[in-house]
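Quick one, probably user error.
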C-alpha cells in the first residue's frame, strides 16, 4: 500500500506547477490549464484526507469540484473565444478593456 504522504507530495507538486503557470504564462489558455492543475491537486488532497478518516464526504465533494471545474472550463473557453474574436489575441497583457 502506498503511504498517503506520497499523494500529498504529488498534490503539492501539482499545485505548485499550477501556481507557477498562472504567474509566469500570460496566455489565457495556459492560465486556464494552471487553474485546472490546481483544482486537480485539491481533489487529490480531498481524496487522501477522506481516506484517512474512512469517510466518503471528501470523495463526494471531489465529484462536486470536478463538475464545477468542467463548467468553469466551458465558460472560460467560451469567454476566451469571444475575447479572441474581439482582440485577435489570447495574451492577457494585451487585453486592456472590454468592448461594449
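Nope, works fine. Designed sequence:
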Amino acid at each position: 500500500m502506498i503511504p498517503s504522504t506520497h499523494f500529498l507530495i504529488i498534490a503539492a507538486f501539482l499545485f505548485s506547477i499550477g501556481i507557477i503557470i498562472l504567474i509566469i504564462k500570460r496566455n489565457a489558455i495556459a492560465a486556464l490549464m494552471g487553474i485546472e492543475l490546481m483544482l486537480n491537486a485539491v481533489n487529490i488532497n480531498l481524496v487522501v484526507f477522506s481516506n484517512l478518516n474512512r469517510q466518503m464526504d471528501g470523495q463526494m465533494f471531489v465529484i462536486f469540484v470536478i463538475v464545477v471545474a468542467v463548467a468553469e472550463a466551458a465558460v472560460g473557453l467560451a469567454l476566451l473565444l469571444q475575447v479572441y474574436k474581439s482582440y485577435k489575441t489570447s495574451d492577457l497583457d494585451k487585453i486592456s478593456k472590454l468592448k461594449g
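Residues 4-87 form a domain with the Helix Hairpins fold (CATH 1.10.287.3510).
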